[in-house]
């Protein structure tokens, strides 16, 4: 007699010492409720969603133009500080609330070429084409499945006890810090599959096309921020160069913190390939919720996070406009409560502290 498949088993996962159990019937009902919620929101999409994203785009462009203009007078400290801050905010908005969400297809339904997931290119080192595969497909399909989701450690870090330890991971805290300050380049190299190169499964030559794409995009970004705009500033070039460098650093650190706090805080779960075989829709939703964490904050905080502060809702419904997640979260949390599924949420400092502890702890066997 063959073993039953996962679709015939009662669903179980232990979180913080407590075992969550869903029968097949409960799992199916759970999936139907979330499907119905998604369909209801999609049916309601319209002008307010378009107005929202266009206002964000307008604000981002205004911040960039004003920030770069102020940096041209960066020899005066107040101008440099204001210009750097505005440019950093513009880069955060471009990457988090605009680029990330547009490239998820959240606004494809509008038919607006400027909001097309296939045509959008963002202000960062990672080519959009590569990101759409490594993030939209690989990460969102195989969320937190160790050995399939390359976002678990980004091919650099050990972020799960199920990842086999080697002496290389003694450097976990150092690698994490470098990834944070150079995050746009870490994201750019994501599609390179560096962990497979280290393991000898593939070589750099196998990734030549990927490398060519990364080089073209990185070169373009470098010339723009560190050559073109400084040259335009003439004698003020050093202040423009330093402002651009600092703005990129601000964006890198912020993006890293938001993304890591959505995926790796305490009690966020990883899954094995075996336990996710032949998933039903309800089981997929179950994995997305347990493999994610939210952040609490005010409206501005959520905008600057790209609404990835609602990482649970984003993993459940990645193609729904992210500004809707705050509304959806109320119902998602209530559904989770009824089915006894933990809903991981908390302030940024607390969640990030648990991420740091995990990084340090997993450096050791």
Describe what this molecule looks like in 3D:
By secondary structure, the protein is mainly alpha-helical. The chain has one domain (25-361). 58% of the residues lie in helices and 4% in strands. The protein is built from 14 helices and four strands. The chain has helices at residues 24-44, 47-71, 77-102, 128-141, 172-181, 183-188, 194-198, 208-232, 237-263, 281-290, 299-304, 311-316, 325-339, 348-361, and strands at 11-15, 18-22, 294-296, 345-347. Strands 1-2 form a two-stranded antiparallel sheet. Strands 3-4 form a two-stranded parallel sheet. β1 and β2 form a beta hairpin. α3 packs across α9 and α8 crosses α9. The two termini are 38 Å apart. Residues 1-7 have low confidence and may be disordered.
Structurally, how many domains make up the residues?
Answer: 1
Order of helices and strands: EEHHHHHHHHHHEHHHEH
Q: What percent strand?
A: under 5%
Q: Averaged pLDDT, please?
A: 94
Q: How many helical stretches?
A: 14
Give the helix proportion (percent range): 55-70%
- Rg from Cα: 21 Å
Segments where pLDDT lies below 50 for 5+ residues? Answer: 1-7
Strand order of the largest sheet: 1-2
Gap between N and C termini, in Å? 38 Å
Biggest pleated sheet: 2 strands, antiparallel
- Quaternary state reads single chain
Tell me the number of strands.
4
Backbone shape: globular
Secondary-structure-derived class: mainly alpha
């Amino acid at each position: 007699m063959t073993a039953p498949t996962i679709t015939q088993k009662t669903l179980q996962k232990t979180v913080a010492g407590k075992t969550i159990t869903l029968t097949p019937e409960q799992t199916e009902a759970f999936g139907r409720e979330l499907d119905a919620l998604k369909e209801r929101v999609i049916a309601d999409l319209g002008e307010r969603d378009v107005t929202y994203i266009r206002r964000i785009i307008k604000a981002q462009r205004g911040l960039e133009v004003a920030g770069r203009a102020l940096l041209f007078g960066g020899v005066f400290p107040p101008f440099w500080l204001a210009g750097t801050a505005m440019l950093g905010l513009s880069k955060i908005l471009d990457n988090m609330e605009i680029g990330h969400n547009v490239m998820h297809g959240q606004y494809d339904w509008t038919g607006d070429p400027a909001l097309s997931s296939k045509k959008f290119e963002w202000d960062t080192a990672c080519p959009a084409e590569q990101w759409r595969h490594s993030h939209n497909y690989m990460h969102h399909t195989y969320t937190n499945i160790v050995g399939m989701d390359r976002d678990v450690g980004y091919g650099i870090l050990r972020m799960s006890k199920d990842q086999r330890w080697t002496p290389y991971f003694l450097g976990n805290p150092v690698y994490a810090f470098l990834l944070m300050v150079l995050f746009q380049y870490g994201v750019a190299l994501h599609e390179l599959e560096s962990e497979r190169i280290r393991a000898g499964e593939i070589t750099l030559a196998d990734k030549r096309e990927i490398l060519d794409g990364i080089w073209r995009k990185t070169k373009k970004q470098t010339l723009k921020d560190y050559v073109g705009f400084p040259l335009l500033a003439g004698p003020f070039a050093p202040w423009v160069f330093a402002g651009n460098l600092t703005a990129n650093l601000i964006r890198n650190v912020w993006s890293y913190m938001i993304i890591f706090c959505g995926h790796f805080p305490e009690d966020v779960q990883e899954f094995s390939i075996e336990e996710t075989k032949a998933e039903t829709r309800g089981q997929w939703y179950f994995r997305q919720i347990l493999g994610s964490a939210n952040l609490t904050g005010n409206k501005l905080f959520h905008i600057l996070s790209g609404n990835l502060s609602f990482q649970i809702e984003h993993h459940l419904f990645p193609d729904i406009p992210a500004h809707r997640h705050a509304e959806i979260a109320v119902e998602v949390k209530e559904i989770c409560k009824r089915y006894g599924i933990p809903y991981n949420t908390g302030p940024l400092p607390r969640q990030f502290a648990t991420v740091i502890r995990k990084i340090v702890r997993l450096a050791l066997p």
